[in-house]
Amino acid sequence: MTDPAKILLRGVTKSFGPKKVLQGIDLSVAPRESVVVIGGSGTGKSVLLKCILGLMQPDSGSIQVDSEETTTLASRERERVMRKFGMLFQGGALFDSLRVWENVAFGPIQSDGMAPAKAREVALAKLGAVGLGPEIGELFPSELSGGMQKRVALARAIAREPDIIFFDEPTTGLDPIMADVINDLIVKCVSDLGATAVSITHDMASARKIGHRIAMLHEGRLIWQGPVGEIDRSGDPRVDQFIHGRAEGPIQMQVRKL
Amino acid sequence: MTLPIVTMLGRMTLAFLTAIGAVSAFAFHAVRQGLRPPWYGRQIARQIMEIGYYSLPVVGLTAIFTGMVLALQSYTGFARFSAESAIPNVVVVSLTRELGPVLAGLMVAGRVGAAMAAEIGTMRVTEQIDALTTLSTDPFRYLVVPRLIAGIVTLPILVLIADIIGVLGGFLVGVYKLDFNDVAYLRNTMDFLEFQDVFSGLVKAAVFGFLITLMGCYHGYTSRGGAQGVGMATTNAVVSASILILTFNYFITEAFFAL
User: Fold this and answer.
1) Are B133 and A82 an interchain contact pair (Cβ–Cβ within 8 Å)?
2) How large is the angle between the packed helices B2-34 and B195-221, nearest 10 degrees?
3) pLDDT tens across A129-140, in order?
4) What domain range includes position B86?
5) Which CATH number fits domain A29-54+76-244: 3.20.20.140, 3.40.50.720, 3.40.50.300, 3.30.70.1060?
6) Which terminus has fewer CB within 10 Å in chain A: N or C?
7) Cβ neighbours of residue A64 under 8 Å, at least 6 residues apart?
8) Rounded CA gap, A124 and A100, in Å?
9) How many domains does chain B have?
């Protein structure tokens, strides 16, 4: 890695009251690299993503995007950095009061000041890129199936052609075939844009497909990271337990005894 | 067993003060954001329609029946000392100074405050508010400020219309049930009406508009934890707005009383 890192995290911590969610995260993502963070439910994957995005403020540590420290930015500066980001939310988070094309065109119109007619063309092109016809653009998000909503959300995330795209559990709640369709679309969109991607998921099939590198989050720390091909030879029993989905092993789910 | 009661009182006081602090900080931030561009004109227009136009039937019905019952009730009282001629004046002064803004405020709090808290609350729990931020749009300026502006602008207009409809209600009962002369009724209404009666009512309306939308936005924006959280936000928005309306009503009245 000779290039400076696109995203660089050092010693990031975050607590909610007495609960320490992140306990010192170090992570470096190179330009055009796709990193997938895996980990069980409630291990702080979403919190990590929200800290990088600036939706949450970490308690300590440093987060750099393009070698620029983002944890100390004022709100107006943050909006500028936000322009580099695209985000696909777990539930889609589409605006249900707006039509599909208006959702996709939201970023270009509201924050880049693009004329609505032009933004509509851009939106329809992006919808085409995720395999949705122009007639879908006139519908409201509530009229779409879960898989279609995910695709619209993906189109919205890439509408401003961001440098960095975040994916929050992109395949959760989808059937295996639709999940694979979404995985393919993510790989295609990220490579077409030449973007850097950070995803969080607990779906191993998805992680193997969309990631170049995998990092595993457990109890607030990244316990392992390496290229996708090496995850089966991690030598860490906790990673093995997770990727094979076994209830028995070093990671004990905190299920209260009856 | 005195200690637990004292502890409980202390906790309640602290929680109450914390809530006041949080609401004040929210209001301060919203006002500060509202003073600088960009303003989202389409959002403001949409909210004015939502708060004003669609509330007209509810507020109109409330006003007409209030005017009618005022005429009837004041007749019962005033006939006992032959002061029936004061009825038109009692109706119009009660409506413009007091019942118009308070009843319209309470109806709008129930209709609009609740809807606002539910909409923004749902946007919060489905991450739509986070999505706004990632699209470089400040959710305060896009969601909260347009609603506050619409509330402050629309409520006075709504109350003015309610005043007119309420007087019409009193007029109908006065003329067709209490055998007033129609011209005399209207003259009595206008002759004793002062500018300050209407003006103080409209000031109240603007303040109530701010309070209703502030409570709707605050409770929606800070809601947590899915359907239950949104339900709670809705209830809290209506209850707190109603209490604030009645409290502020007294203090605004007192301020005008002193003038």
Assistant:
1) yes
2) 110
3) 888 888 998 999
4) 39-258
5) 3.40.50.300
6) C
7) A5, A7, A8, A9, A70
8) 10
9) 1
**Bridge partners, A85 (sequence order):** A164
On whether any CB of chain B is under 8 Å from the CB of A82, the answer is yes
- In three-state secondary structure terms, A37 is strand
Handedness of CA B26, B27, B30, B36 (dihedral sign): negative
CA of A54 vs chain B CAs: smallest distance (Å): 9
Query: Mean pLDDT in chain B?
Result: 91
What percent of chain A lies above the pLDDT cut of 70? 97
pLDDT in tens, B88-122: 988 999 999 999 999 999 999 999 999 999 999 99
Predicted TM-score of the model (pTM): 0.86
Residue B23 lies in a domain: no
User: CB–CB of A234/A215 below 8 Å?
Assistant: no
Q: Where are the beta strands (DSSP E) in A59-192?
A: 60-65, 68-69, 85-88, 164-168
Q: Is B2 on the interface with A (CB under 8 A)?
A: no
| Chain centroid to CA B126 | 29
pLDDT of residue A189: 85
Partner residue facing B127 (CB), from A82, A93, A97: A93
Residue with tokens 């393009």: A66
- pLDDT, one tens digit per residue, over A90-118 is 888 999 889 999 999 998 888 788 888 88
The continuous run of DSSP H or E covering B171 comes out as: helix B145-176
**Domain presence at residue B150:** yes
Length of chain A measured in residues: 258
pLDDT score for A1: 47
